[in-house]
Design the sequence.
């Protein structure tokens, strides 16, 4: 357990969370911590003999947040409990909490030892990829509130939100798919065995065996036909009702004829039937479905604002503070919002200094300062001290909710089905039906048996199994490769859309600029070492985002500040070792000749003892490689930028984007939506890349909405794909790779057709035997699977995506 | 031929066993979280020796 003293010198990192220790350091039993929070967690774990936590993984912890315990009082409310609990019988309950800070094996270990920290917890199990913990606890010994407080105190603050847990439905669907594959695989293998005597040839003395085996075969076919292939019949009928011949129609027809003809042959003892081919067909089809249905558990593409709203809010009535569920908020209620909390309803500011971070709504993270009596819209996050507000509209009536509902109404239904496979299968089905009826007409006058054999044979052998599995396997592989590059797609049909994009619309803030990073530059008289540490100490006392940016830029020794004062919308001041420091706007800092500067940067002036030393210039930072990306994208696609900000960035954007790029400024969320819609009505296939809720409408309207986020597990508006900010510059490679994947699909279609032609050649003459079908159908499926997955992987390697 | 009958009969029974095992594994949720158990198995139950 001894640490090497190598890093106890200047750059020490916290024993608990691994952060570099800045300024004050907390020492405990020879171990260094960055804050008392981390030390307390260590002490809790030490007292309970849980120090294995630190052995499994170095510096595994997360610094606990310092929020007041009373904030969780609402968890004692039975109504809220019922919304959160998975199961309860009044004595024991099970709850699943989402813990965003889970990040390593130590986390799993500690969270599964929770019963050592709270006697009321019976069992806790972590689902690592979903970052969830499911806890079973006894009511008489503990409560939900205590568990949440315990988790917060050891650095795992749960996300408590109201969005309905739809995950269960989803897992039920995949479960039934697994069952079906299991049954189909079982029947496939065994029916092949039962068919062996037939294929190998039986001598006349054991004719009875043949009969027994063929009946057993039929028995195996029953669950495959009625259970495993149910989805295909449902989909085919659904398509026909809408007058669409989708790919499920010929599949369902093939399956039906396979079973019907087999049943007839076996019952009448005229032949062995095709049961083994049918089971094999279903097995491969369902396998393709599983391959395609892989979704990203930890991502949520359907998020709406309720996922981010708190469950409850603190209200104040006659001086008494109580927490109430947000749904019960009424007009006129007084609410108290603390640092880091989201304003749940449109409200008027009554008391306190409000700096509202609307990044969740607009993508812009610089807080907007509000004065008393001003309206604060729902969705803003308070930065700084506590504020008191008066609710003007109920949660369901607020501007954000209305905006959201409008978007959802205007959202067109994005087809899940692949356009390509539908077009192909339409013509395919028509051709196959034409051939089969032609053959029927040709044979019917001559030979009744051959006519029926040929007719059903064609429909059986033409069943587009290979066609149907080439899309899931190619696109499933492509989706995995994208996932490895931090580009997560909602489903495989997004790849097809991506390959057809001809217009790309970008949002500015947070999309083509870094959401969190800004470039800071100091201009003015050079500051001495003491002055730097003085300025640093002053700004690190403030929670204002500009102060935090400057503090991060300076990082020096921290000293004690006297007379610290924050003037809303102006700046901060304080005394250090006798010198008066002021950081803030030009007028706040003192008299200076320096101008106000261009609009596209924010300046914070510094003055010491009344003399203005200089200013920090803070600018949005564009993503690295942006101009290279836009230049190569601009060759094939039309680009456009729609920004909610003012025109100040126009010159910089013009230099970053190819000549002729349409730049729109001062766009509201609905303007953005309309802009995309206008492009679409001009026949364009639009990809929208955005990040905030203000882009949500445009993301939904576009043919392909991509949400860019710095941390994929965190907030992103509902979209078709989630892209990690770091992979933004690979956009061009993604689009090219999507196109080549579609080429692989087309190539595999050609391959599948060749098998069909061979099969139909025999079937035409009424010569399709069960052995032939039993070889031809699995062989075609296996070649398609191998061809598509291998080619896609090779292409990805050549493009440098793997 | 009778050898084949015995063989097929046995293999069918074995396959039924595997099918039941598969259905059980799906029902108990073993396909839902494919990552965490791989980490969990590496934890020592108790570190009394240290």
Sequence:
């Amino acid at each position: 357990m001894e640490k090497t003293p190598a890093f106890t010198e200047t750059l020490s990192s916290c024993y608990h969370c691994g952060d570099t220790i800045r300024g004050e350091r907390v020492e405990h039993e020879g171990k260094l911590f960055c804050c008392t929070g981390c030390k307390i967690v260590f002490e809790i774990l030490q007292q309970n003999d849980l120090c294995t936590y630190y052995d499994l993984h170095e510096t595994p912890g997360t610094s606990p947040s310092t929020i007041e315990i009373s904030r969780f009082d609402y968890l004692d409310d039975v109504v809220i409990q019922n919304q959160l609990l998975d199961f309860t019988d009044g004595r024991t309950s099970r709850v699943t909490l989402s813990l965003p800070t889970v990040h390593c094996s130590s986390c799993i270990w500690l969270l599964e030892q929770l019963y050592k920290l709270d006697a009321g917890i019976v069992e806790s199990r972590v689902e690592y990829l979903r970052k969830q913990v499911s806890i079973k606890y006894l009511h008489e010994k503990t409560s939900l509130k205590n568990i949440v407080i315990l988790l917060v105190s050891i650095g795992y603050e749960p996300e408590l939100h109201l969005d309905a847990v739809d995950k269960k439905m989803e897992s039920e669907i995949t479960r039934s798919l697994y069952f079906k594959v299991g049954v189909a695989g079982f029947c496939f293998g065994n029916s092949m065995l039962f068919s062996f005597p037939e294929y190998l040839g039986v001598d006349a003395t054991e004719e009875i065996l043949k009969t027994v085996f063929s009946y057993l075969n039929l028995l195996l076919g029953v669950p495959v036909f009625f259970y495993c292939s149910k989805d295909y019949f449902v989909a085919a009928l659904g398509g026909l009702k809408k007058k669409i011949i989708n790919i499920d129609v010929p599949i369902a027809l093939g399956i039906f004829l396979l079973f019907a003809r087999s049943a007839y042959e076996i019952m009448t003892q005229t032949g062995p039937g095709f049961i083994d081919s049918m089971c094999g067909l279903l097995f491969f089809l369902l396998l393709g479905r599983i391959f395609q249905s892989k979704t990203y558990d930890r991502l949520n593409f359907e998020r709406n604002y309720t996922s981010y709203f708190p469950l409850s809010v603190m209200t104040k009535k006659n001086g008494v503070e109580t927490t109430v569920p947000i749904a019960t908020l009424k007009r006129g209620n007084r609410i108290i919002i603390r640092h880091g909390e989201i304003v749940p309803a449109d409200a008027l500011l009554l008391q306190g200094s409000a700096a509202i971070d609307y990044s969740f709504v607009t993508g812009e993270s610089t807080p907007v300062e509000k004065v008393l009596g001003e309206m604060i819209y729902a969705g803003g996050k308070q930065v700084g001290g506590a504020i008191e507000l008066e609710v003007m509209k109920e949660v369901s009536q607020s501007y954000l909710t209305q905006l959201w509902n409008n978007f959802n109404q205007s959202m067109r239904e994005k087809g899940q089905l692949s356009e390509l496979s539908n077009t192909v299968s339409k013509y395919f089905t028509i051709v196959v039906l034409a051939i089969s009826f032609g053959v029927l007409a040709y044979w019917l006058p001559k030979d009744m048996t051959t006519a029926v054999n040929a007719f059903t044979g064609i429909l059986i052998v033409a069943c587009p199994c290979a066609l149907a599995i080439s899309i899931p396997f190619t696109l499933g592989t492509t989706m995995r490769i994208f996932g490895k590059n931090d580009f997560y797609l909602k489903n495989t049909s997004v790849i097809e859309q991506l390959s057809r994009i001809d217009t790309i619309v970008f949002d500015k803030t947070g999309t083509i600029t870094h959401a969190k990073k800004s470039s800071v530059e100091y201009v003015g008289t050079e500051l001495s070492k003491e002055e730097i540490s003085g300025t640093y100490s002053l700004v690190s006392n403030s929670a204002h985002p500009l102060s935090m940016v400057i503090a991060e830029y300076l990082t020096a020794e921290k000293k004690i500040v006297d007379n610290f004062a924050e003037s809303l919308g102006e700046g901060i001041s304080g005394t250090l070792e006798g010198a008066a420091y002021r950081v803030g706007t030009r007028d706040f800092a003192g008299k200076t000749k320096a101008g106000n500067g261009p609009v596209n940067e924010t300046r914070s002036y510094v003055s010491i003892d009344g003399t203005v030393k200089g200013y920090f210039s803070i600018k949005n930072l564009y993503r690295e490689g942006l101009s290279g990306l836009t230049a190569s994208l601009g060759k094939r696609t039309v680009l456009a930028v729609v920004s909610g900000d003012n025109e100040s960035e126009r010159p910089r954007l013009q230099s970053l984007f190819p000549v002729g790029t349409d730049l729109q400024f001062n766009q509201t969320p609905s303007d953005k939506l309309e802009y995309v819609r206008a492009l679409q009505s001009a026949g364009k296939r639009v990809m929208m890349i955005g990040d905030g809720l203000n882009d949500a409408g445009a993301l939904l309207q576009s043919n392909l909405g991509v949400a860019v986020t710095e941390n994929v597990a965190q907030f992103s508006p509902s979209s078709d794909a989630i892209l990690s900010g770091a992979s933004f510059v690979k956009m061009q490679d993604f689009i090219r790779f999507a196109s080549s994947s579609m080429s692989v699909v087309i190539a595999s279609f050609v391959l599948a057709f060749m098998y069909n032609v061979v099969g139909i050649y025999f079937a035409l003459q009424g010569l399709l035997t069960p052995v032939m079908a039993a070889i031809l159908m699995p062989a075609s499926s296996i070649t398609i699977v191998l061809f598509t997955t291998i080619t896609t992987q090779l292409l990805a390697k050549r493009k440098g995506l793997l | 031929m009778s050898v084949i009958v015995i063989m097929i009969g046995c293999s069918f029974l074995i396959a039924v066993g595997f099918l039941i095992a598969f259905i059980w594994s799906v029902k108990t949720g073993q396909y839902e979280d494919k990552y965490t158990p791989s980490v969990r198995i590496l934890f020592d139950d108790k570190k009394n020796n240290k």
Remarks:
- DSSP finds two helices and no strands in chain B.
